[in-house]
Amino acid sequence: LYSGMWTPYKSRSIGDMLGRAVVLLDAWEFRRLANIRQTSFLYMVNPASNNTRLEHSIGAGYLAGEIGQSVGLGEEDVAHLRLAGLSHDLGHSFWSHVGEDLIKELTGKDHKTITLEKLERLRDLIEQQQFDYGLVRSILDGSHPYSPIVSGSVISADKLDYLSRDSHHTSGRQGFDIDRLLAFLRFKDGKYAVDHHALDALEGTAMAYLRNYIGDYLAEDAMLIGEGMLRALFNAIMEQHIEPDQMVEWDDTEPMGVIRYSDNHTAQRIYETFFGTRDVRPVRPIVVAQIKHD
Fold first, then answer.
1. Are 259 and 229 within 8 A, CB to CB?
2. Phi, psi of 58 (to 5 degrees)
3. pLDDT, tens only, 41-62
4. Which of 177, 201, 229, 261 is most buried, judging by how many CB atoms fall within 10 Å of its CB?
5. pLDDT digit string (tens) for 216-249?
6. How far apart are CA 103 and CA 115, in angstroms?
7. Separation between Cα atoms, residue 106 and residue 11, nearest integer Å
8. HSE-up of 263 (CA within 13 Å, CB side)?
């Protein structure tokens, strides 16, 4: 499952990257992430963009541990940061950010809430590996001083892995010096920051994040495809009376099947527009026409 995963870091095994947290990868909650594309429908316009939420989670777990070591935290704190980084996307919906708003609208739960619910299901396994469940949960719910190391800031493990990994898969250019940045990260008096000697590296990271976000998540063609597929899915689930809590457990494959085999005319028409033709012309004119028509 992991042997073909590209890693922007030193060549090493997944076990070396994650330590004892690697055992949790056997849990279904993590294996589900292997079937969720990180950049949703961007692969429709950039076929190289096929990296998954699982790959990103492994990378974020590794980087969280590396940051912990770089700022001088103890071995157990580093181990807990690895697990928190690995777990930070457990609540991501199918189709990544495209499906997130629909799940929130239907269930009233955001990504973080669902992540914590799924983490609770893994509590026994986590504690069996000698982790402090309460510490991991507090890092993920944002209440711990270590929380910004894992996610939420431009210098978090989440953002740094996203930048490295998505840059590789979409353009092949990283655009920032991650090694220099890691060397100048600091954690002092409960605050996570960058040393002033590396403000240029921080600026480069922020600019790279902005470029990647605009180029990937705000790519017009991919957004239009996502909008069309959400419309198709909404029509399909309304007819099939699918429970929202069931959808929380989906990966990318389930909604595609629901749409494909739906009796709803709109859902079928949108699906055929994107996936049922051998026409290799650029998809944007087709998408725009379809969405405007509906």
1. yes
2. -65, -45
3. 988 888 888 889 999 999 999 9
4. 229
5. 667 788 888 999 999 999 999 998 889 999 999 9
6. 13
7. 42
8. 4
